[in-house]
Amino acid sequence: IENHEPEAEEVLRQLFPQTGQAYLVGVTGSPGTGKSTLVDRLASRYRKQQLPVGIVAVDPSSPFSGGAILGDRIRMQGHATDSGVFIRSMATRGFLGGLARTTADVALLLDAAGKRLILVETVGVGQDEVDIVKLADCTLVVLMPGSGDEVQAIKAGIMEIADIFVINKADREGADRFEQQLMAMLSLAPARDGWSPPVVRTVATEDKGTAEVVAAIEKFRAHFAAAGRRNARNVERWKQRLLELLQARLMERVVSEGLGEAALVAL
C-alpha cells in the first residue's frame, strides 16, 4: 500500500466494508514536544482497557536518501512483545502536511485488522501543516513551555484544529504562565459545535497527566456522538478524500501518459 503496488487498490477495496469501527486520535505539534512518548503512554492506558491499538508514526524523509530514522520505534519498545499493539513507522517521502501520502490508507488497514483505537503521530509540524484534521476523529495538539515564543506556536492553523490541547513537559519553568496565555487565547475563540478545547498538563516521561488526556478524549468522543456530528464529519472527510484521490490519479496519468520521463527532463 505504501509503495503504490498495483494490487494495493484492490486490497483496500475488499477491506473497506470491514472498516469504520476504529476511533482515530491524531497527535500533532512542534518537534521536541514529546509526542512519541505521549503516544507510548496513551497506548499503555488503552491496552489496560483491553483495546486493540494501532499506532502510525510519521517521520520526515531525508531529501537526499529518501529514508527516515524512524526514531518513534525506539521510544515505543515497551510494546514490542504486545500482540495487541501494532506500530507502523512511515516516512513522509517528501509529502507535506505532517502526514505521508498513504497514512490514511494504512489507518484503514489497521481498522480492518480489528484495531479499535488508532493513534496517528504526525511529523513535527508548523502552523500550516494540519492535514491530520482531515483524518482524525479527535486531534491532540501537543505544546510545551519554554520553547521560545509560545504564543507564535499556537496561533493560526494549529490553534484551529485542536480538539484538546496538551501541555507536555509541564514540570518545566514557565508552565503556569504558558497555560494562562493559552487559556486567554482560547477564551477569545468561539466554541466549535458546542465544544471548547480543554487544556491538559502532562509529564509524559513520568506518565503524569496521561489518564486525564484519555478522559478528555472520551469526553470529546461522547460529546460528538451525542451531537451526531461524527457521521457529518466523516461525510466531509470522504468528500475531501475523493477529491484528493482524483487529483492524484489525474497527476499520475498526466505524468505517465502525457509527459513521460523524457518530456519531464526536456522541460
Task: Please explain how this structure is put together.
The protein has 267 residues and is α/β, with parallel strands linked by helices. It starts with 7 loop residues before the first helix and ends with a helix. Helix 2 (35-48) packs across helix 8 (210-227). The protein is globular and about 60 Å long. Strand 2, helix 3 (72-75) and strand 3 form a beta-alpha-beta unit. Helices cover 43% and strands 15% of the residues. The longest helix is centred in the C-terminal third of the chain and has 38 residues, at 229-266. Residues 62-69 have low confidence and may be disordered. The chain is built from nine helices and seven strands. The chain has a seven-stranded parallel beta sheet with strand order 3-2-4-1-5-6-7, with helices on both faces.
Record the SSE blueprint.
Elements: H1 8-15, E1 23-29, H2 35-48, E2 53-59, H3 72-75, E3 85-91, H4 103-112, E4 117-121, E5 138-143, H5 150-153, H6 156-161, E6 164-167, H7 175-188, E7 199-201, H8 210-227, H9 229-266
Parallel strand pairs: 1-4, 1-5, 2-3, 2-4, 5-6, 6-7
Helix pairs in contact: 2-8
